[in-house]
Amino acid sequence: MQKVRKLVTTIMIAALITAMEGTTISQLSHYVKADTNTTSQTSQAENDLTQYKKINGIGDNTVLGADFSHYQLQKNAWKKVWKNYKGIEVSNVFEYVRSQGINTISVKVAVNPAKDDSYLSLEYAKETLKEAKKAGLKTNVVLLYSDKITYGNSQELPGGWSVDKAAEEANKYTKTVLEELKRAGATPTMVTIGNEVNYNFLNLSSWDGYCAMAEISKTVKDAGIKTAFSFAAPEKASDIQYIIEQLGYACEKYEGAGYDYIGVNIYPNTHSDSYVKELKNTVEEKAAGKQMIISSVKCPWKDSEGKASITTQTKSIYDYLQATIDEKNAGGLIYNDADFVGAWDSFFDENGQAMSSLAIFAYAQGNQVDVSTYKDPWEYGGDTGLKNLTASVKKLNNMSQSSIRGMDISSYTALKKAGVKYYDFDGKETSLLKVLHDNGVNYIRIRIWNDPTNEKGETYGGGANDVAAGLEIAKEAAQYDMKLLLDFHYSDFWADPALQKIPKAWKKDKNDTEKMKQNVYDFTKDTIKKFQEVGADIGMVQVGNEITNGMLDIMPDYSKGETYKDTWGNAKNAKILCGYLKAGIKAVRECTPKALVTLHLESMGYGKCSEIMNAWERNGVDYDVFGSSFYQFWQGNSSKNALAGLQKIENLAKSRGKMYAVMETSWLNSLKDADGTSNVIGEGHANAKVYSDDPQGQVDALTDMYQTLLSNDNGLGAFYWEGAWIPVKAGWTNWKYNKDMSDRYGTGWAAQGAKGYYPDNKMYYNGQPAWGGSSWDNQTLFDSNGYPLQSLKFYKDSVSKGKEQIIALKIVDKNGKEVYPTQYVKVEVGKTRKITLPKFSGYYPKNKNIT
């Protein structure tokens, strides 16, 4: 089965790589969210906005602004989307934020921004302003007069500007920008001159800087646009009066100069709402008629200390906004980086979903908008609804209490160690084995690896299936009288048609056939004894796993175009391989003579299976059951064809005198991923629609398979592969947690510890780690939180008969030599059955019928 695991993680990694292409701006200046959204969503749910009443004095003139400077870059280069509180993508984010109380969209513009600051380009600003205006919003342009963002201690001139001509260049530049905006149909409602100026506008001295700002204000006002200034917050709020005085003197120098707004950039860690109130009061006293606003502020909803939340963000915004408003000052604020998807201090999380704090702008105006949220359960680990989906199960004519209704749950021990819980249909936490037993599962398959750890003792992952892990499952299964199938891989990790890697401890003996046979014998015998010691009821032992192309490093050289014919069709290789099989089988027969011996191929190809069985027969391999892997999504796009192929293989086993069972099978409960590691079969897979992708589809797939399997008396039943391999922590936003748990307990398809043993081409994709969580969580018979699906009831509700016995009828000559393949006859306990013996040349029974 391992071949699927590589496909899984490479998709995930590829998706991550693609998401980062085209990034042209460093995100280090933002609190960018990189881990689970659980904390934020919990806070969002608890964010009670009804406590916030309409602010007295708020009105149409209040600036309720959101900075969207990154919008074009995010939309076009980063391919970001914006969603409402329910996680549904909005068709127009400007109309959406307007519905949440925003009335002004602001953008910053640099003169000649470099690549890393391309979001500050005038071209981007034009497009954003046009979209905002179309949505009925007011607009503001912050002219930086620099090639990059400016701050109180950094007002760097654009390239090519000199200090002595800076004022002249700035005024000329302003006129050019306003003309371009007008031609583009993007003339703003207001222009903010400078950003966070601290007596150093254009690197000029205090007075000269104020004069330059005043002259530019005249240019802006002449264009019929409102004017604002943005200043760095003075250490003492009352010191804003000095700025007001200087601006007043400077504006008197230029007829027509002046301003409408005086803005101050605020930082929550430094400036309280009381500070803002004092600023407002000072402006009202010293600059009557001018509107004081917060020209830039942003408040985190998450921080590294765990103190910030949606609730604290909401309160901070409301308090700041309220501090700017009274009957004399319409006030307002512009929220910086409001549009930045994934920043810890924006209004949109990493998936683009709006934070309820955005709605505070509406609540502050007395509008109680709907902020009810929807948390995608696949994303955040909630109830997916799968457990509530119905599934109709019908009785199957040949399904008896003795039919193998098995499940491979090899990952169970690792999952349990990581804290995974399972529940019964009443919602009570219950042992997984009890849930399975109570719902008709009667056989448990356990894969066994020799030593799935590295030299540091770190797990390879994949369930960490050493003997000890299997014994834990066996002890629990024994409590419920469930039979076991021991699946020996004879490897330290996944053994499948692509790779059958020799255990580390046996590598020194690789070229010593006799020693290798002894290794196989000893390991098989010792392991079986350990299972017997814990009370395990071993009903079947599988010697090798999916050995279609070989085992124990005797495999085709794929680089030379070799195939299974170069192993099983090569007399020398086949003899060695069959020697290994016979060594394992000998141990089984000696330790647990009543157990059935199974040989397992992944292939459903009739010709291939027949050739390999020929090699076993030529070399005297003694086994009871021929097993296959039967995954309908890999058998073509027709259930009819797949089932016909299954019937042919079962008949092939019958013709060789062997019983038959499906060693691995499964079907989809959905196409969704629940743990952050992409699934083997997901959306878009060509053959994923053979049955419906839901619990009913699982029942239908199992029904068709069992009807086919049990139509012959040599058909024993099937094992569902990893039917309980659910996430450690549900929700694909928890992918990192699930990856960490895999490294620690081995819960995912592979763990970091497998590096060096497992091939790099499986552990890495494009140089990136490809190990992680489960790739099978959408094929389980449980939901992602451990609750059973209705499809699990198939194993109990499909049974129509009591217990059966299987009679193996050997037809021999007078010397005891078999002259016809063994025939298998199922007889329900307590009943009789009459059969007709086969006819063949040279043998005539005295009685044609046997009862």
TrEMBL record:
Protein's name according to its UniProt entry: Arabinogalactan endo-beta-1,4-galactanase
Any single Pfam family the record assigns to this protein: Glyco_hydro_53
GO annotation (BP), single: pectin catabolic process
Gene3D superfamilies: Glycosidases
Signal peptide stretch: 1-21
Family assignment from sequence similarity: Belongs to the glycosyl hydrolase 53 family.
Species, as recorded: Anaerostipes hadrus
Catalytic activity: The enzyme specifically hydrolyzes (1->4)-beta-D-galactosidic linkages in type I arabinogalactans
Keywords tagged on the record: Glycosidase, Hydrolase, Signal
Gene Ontology molecular function: any one: glucosidase activity
Enzyme Commission designation: 3.2.1.89
SUPFAM superfamilies (alphabetical): (Trans)glycosidases
Top-level lineage group: Bacteria
InterPro entries attached to this UniProt entry: GH, Glyco_hydro_53
